[in-house]
Amino acid sequence: MRKDSLSYIALVVFFLGTFSSYGQGNQEKELLKEVLETLSERYQVQFNYESDILDNVFVERLSPNSSLGKHLQAYQLQTGLRFARVGSSIYTITKPYTICGYLRDVLYREPLEGATIMTSTERVVSKADGSFQITVSAPDEIVEIRFLGFVTLTPKAETFATGTCPIIEMNEEITQIDPVVLEGYLVRGIDRKGDGSTAINFSSFTALPGLIETDVLQAVQSLPGVVSVDETVSNINIRGGSHDQNLILWDGIKMYQSGHFFGLISSFNPQITKEVKVVTNGTDASYTDGVSGSIHMTTDSHLQEQFKGSLGLNFISADVFADIPVGERSSLQLAARRSLNDVFNTSIYDTYFNRVIQQTEIEDNEENVVNSNQEFNFYDTSIRWLYHPTEKDRIRLNFIVFGNNLDFDETSSVNQESVTRGSGLVQNSVAVGLGYERTWNDTFSTTIDAYNTDYKLQGINSDVLQGQRFLQVNTVSETGIRLKGAYRWNNFMGTMGYQAIESEVINENDIDIPRFLRRDSEVLLEHAVFLQGRYRNNNGGFTFNPGVRLNYNGKFDEFLVEPRISLRKKLGNNFHLEALGELKHQNVSQIVNFQNDFLGVERRRWQLTDNDSIPILRSKQGSLGLQFAKAGWLVDATGYVKEVEGITTQSQSFTTKYEFRKEQGSYDVLGLDMLIRKQVSNFSSWLSYSYMVNNYNFENLEESRFPSNFDNTHSVTFGTTYSNDFLDFSAGINYRTGKPTSVPVLNNEVVDGDINFDDANNTRLPDYLRIDMSAIYKIKLIHGLNSKIGASLWNVLNKENAINDYYRLGLDNSPNQITRFALGTTLNVMVRLNF
Fold first, then answer.
1. Is the pLDDT of residue 496 over 50?
2. Domain at 97-170: CATH code
3. DSSP assignment of 214-246
4. Which residues form a coiled coil (predicted)?
5. Which among 363, 315, 307 is positioned nearest to 333, based on CA atoms?
């Protein structure tokens, strides 16, 4: 009984204490309105607010001795309201709320990831789909939206409708010199820009016929005026020029090697390369070299907020890619790729290998010599690091290394003993680049870029019968720095800068028996200053980019002045007129001494100008184009004239007549590039046609003027692509006239023990025809994880396309024609996992 009484008393005491405590707490809290009235009288201040936001809001009053600041700070913490001083004795009280939106590029219609959205109290970053949420204090609070390369927006919070997330479109700054003017030039992701260039954005790219991987240098060959006479990425011909006349840049680093498998696939990993831009004329004055054209590859310039990666596998190689955020102001991209033939062989690998060694010493050696243990592999690794220490400073570091290795053994019986010696070919490149950009204010910015690139080609040819080893080495080492300042005033921007480039080229031939060594080393330092203007009116209907570059070559004490111009004018609602022009020069070019150099696989070697036997290449070019775009239709026609002086016969890949001549000359091209494209819903179809008359001029040859080895008189491409959220399908036809060649004189083929050729390039190889198909199926697995499965078929009809030929005397003293052929039907399959 006593125990139950004590329990009852304890329970009563507990409840009484609880209600007593509750009553005391309720007595200590007062309506905020009443507290503010007291503070207004005591401190002679005024509080402005919407009456309804203080309804039923209670606070715990502080001690009367507390300062006004402590009162307001405490009430802000208790209620979540914001107190802001707007005058000497006036305070506003607001209730925070959340706004949201989606950021889009007004031109690309793509989401903008990584943009900074700021208020006076909070800072957030937009997500992958461009979305953001941020808290604001009042409808009239300014929301600042910043994204590198775009005009900063400063809307008020009241412009965001309550309960909805509007799409906010951002415009590129005028400092962006190449806004998109024709979107989806061929397919989605290929766009024409205001400076006359064409860009392929791989983040939005769909598909092209025959390609399942976004091979950078294969993709550019889909553009009018860009072909490869031998179907490789190491021999790209822009408007009738040779491959060495192309400036190839990877994030501003000049590259002297462009292909794996000695030219069959690009050596630049497509996973880390975001965009490639092709310039055929009207080059910006800040660039030199590339008398035929320029190919600019760039990585993503925006910081990554979340980790991204991918794993890929096809019948040739495996690759891995990662984009890793490092804190809030830094991100690191890594990409690596390697061939898989040492793990397993596939039909496409065998096809590629046989194509590379076709009609070389690796395939056809001397009688009684057996080639064996043929091994080939390639690799590439790319790194890009970004660091933005402040909103105005941006630092970029790049590193790339890639290479090809080919080895085989030669075995024969020497003095009744079996002797085996190894031969091989190594081709690799290593490069590093550093860039720093500073935006001083809204009108002025500066940029510093520096790079070093090293290229090496080494061949060892072992003659097992003679017991001889022949070593050939070609190396290029180049260092460059460029300083640039850009000033913007309304719709005009002017850029002034300085550039210095030092190039060293070494060629070495080393024979052990009999002993012979020749090593030629040349170094050239060139300085340049440049001035580039850019004007674009408010509606984008008129763009004018004049520029001039002054180069000084101290070794030859020579100045070269090179004006550049790019003009674009809108005519009515649907037409644009485009005019481009440029003068350029180039100090480093490629030559071929003998067809069996470097085992006959990669016969070209880089050579620095001596301004005598190897002149400086100089080009001048002008073009005029008209474009029509309406209702999914695009018609683009551009006529051009081009002349390049300072070429040599050794640089033009002669394989028949004049193969062993060393003469100087020039070539001129008169051409027309046309494109007709129609987009309907998810379909995009195009028909492109290129016409050119490309002639050599060599005064000291028997024929002073004759067709160029790169004269593709007629080139036609027809393609169609279908793309939706799940499937990309593409098919196309490529046709062009055969490559010019020379043949022996009929019934008088040999004179004095030499092949007696008819007029140079007076006939052609059979016309080229190829049909390709590709399909990619896209699978969404789970959130943040998706996959792609694709297949491509190259040369569906298995047509035998001759790409080159040459003649050699046979044992019966009659000329034998030897022909090289392009790839036959080639199947490739790809699987990729993105996360």
1. yes
2. 2.60.40.1120
3. --HHHHGGGSTTEEETTS-SSSEEETT--GGGE
4. none
5. 307
Contacts of residue 778, defined as CB under 8 A and 6 or more positions apart, other chains included, come to: 725, 726, 727, 728, 786, 787, 788
Residue with tokens 């400092």: 175
- Count other Cβ atoms within 10 Å, centred on residue 441: 8
CATH code for the structural domain at 293-834: 2.40.170.20
**Mean pLDDT along residues 128-140:** 86
* Domain segments of the chain as ranges: 24-94, 97-170, 293-834
Query: How far apart (Å, rounded) are the C-alpha atoms in residues 155 and 142?
Result: 6
98 Cβ contact partners less than 8 Å away, ≥ 6 residues apart: 133, 134, 135, 136
Please state which CATH number belongs to domain 24-94: 3.55.50.30
- Position 26 scores a pLDDT of 41
Query: What secondary structure letter does DSSP report for 292?
Result: S
Sign of CA dihedral 757, 758, 760, 761: negative
pLDDT at 51 over 90: no
* Full-model pTM: 0.81
Q: What is the pLDDT, as a whole number, of residue 335? A: 97
- List of residues 6+ apart from 75 with CB closer than 8 A: 32, 35, 59, 81, 83
Helix (H) / strand (E) element for 736: namely strand 727-736
* The pLDDT of residue 18 is above 70: no
Q: How confident is the model at residue 108 (pLDDT cuts 50, 70, 90)?
A: low
Give the per-residue pLDDT at 449.
98
Q: What is the dihedral of CA 153, 156, 159, 160, to 10 degrees?
A: 80
Nearest alpha carbon to residue 673 among 275, 238, 247, 293: 238
Confidence category of residue 366, pLDDT binned at 50, 70, 90? low
Query: Cβ distance 713 to 691 under 8 Å?
Result: yes
What lies within 8 Å, CB to CB, of 685 at 6+ separation is: 677, 678, 718, 719, 720, 721
For residue range 158-203, what is the model confidence (pLDDT) as tens digits? 888 777 888 998 876 644 445 677 778 888 888 888 888 999 888 7
